[in-house]
Amino acid sequence: MAKVYVFLAEGFEEVESLTAVDLLRRAEIEVIIVSIIGQLEVKGARGIIVRADELFDNIDVSDASMLILPGGQPGTRNLCAYKPLMKLLMKWNTTGGKVAAICAAPMILGELGVLKGKKATCHPGYECSLHGAQIIEERVISDGNVTTSRGVGTAIPFALELITILSNKEIANKIKTAIVYED
Predict the structure, then answer these.
(1) Nearest to 114 by CA among 128, 127, 133
(2) Which long-range contacts (CB under 8 A, 24 or more apart) does 33-41 make?
(3) Which one from 16, 80, 122, 161 is the annotated catalytic residue?
């Protein structure tokens, strides 16, 4: 079974993170919500408090199928400022590990050099941080081991793409039908 880790910092975008968590769990993909702030309760950009499953210091991603970075501000800046996560992402990328980022969060991957030579998208206004990427204005783009998406309005297609990658298109379509999503 696939297993993913979703990283939360203060100011994360609630819709982007929780849509991915919800739909991935519906697809029976194991999801571990990880707090990088040293406590399990993390406050989102709209003031919603989410209780993470684990603290960053207690995780071992060696069994992970994918790492996921939700956007939002100041959540993205807070993720980017957390050096242990940046170190993990760099190491993860050298092994070709799958990573996904939505909204402003693709800027993290751009600043780490992960997007060089890849097609990518992000929330309008963050394109200058996608260093070396071919910027495409589509809802979701997967290129090699990296999946990026634009924002709250693309959270469902983003999650469905992750299900397709981690499971298969048939299961993604079943979830799409079950939640009455039409694109």
Answers:
(1) 133
(2) 33/6, 33/8, 34/5, 34/6, 34/7, 34/8, 34/59, 35/8, 36/7, 36/8, 36/9, 36/78, 36/79, 36/82, 36/84, 36/85, 37/8, 37/9, 37/10, 37/78
(3) 16
Among all chains, which residue has been given the structure tokens 């003031």?
A: 47
Residue appearing with tokens 């956007």? 71
> Is 135 strand, coil or helix?
strand
Catalytic residue among 13, 14, 80, 123: 123
pLDDT digits (tens, 9 = 90+) for 23-78: 999 999 999 999 999 999 999 999 999 999 999 999 999 999 999 999 999 999 99
Taking the alpha carbons at both ends of the chain, their separation in whole angstroms is 28
pTM of the model: 0.97
What is the distance, to the nearest Å, from the Cα of residue 37 to the centroid of all Cα atoms in its chain? 17
**From 13, 14, 80, 103, the catalytic residue:** 103
One-letter amino acid for residue 22 of the chain: D
Active site includes 128?
no
Query: How many CB atoms are closer than 10 A to CB 178?
Result: 11
How far apart, in whole angstroms, are the C-alpha atoms of residue 61 and residue 144?
Answer: 20
- CA-nearest of 63, 92, 93, 68 to 79 is 68
Mark whether 131 is an active-site residue. no
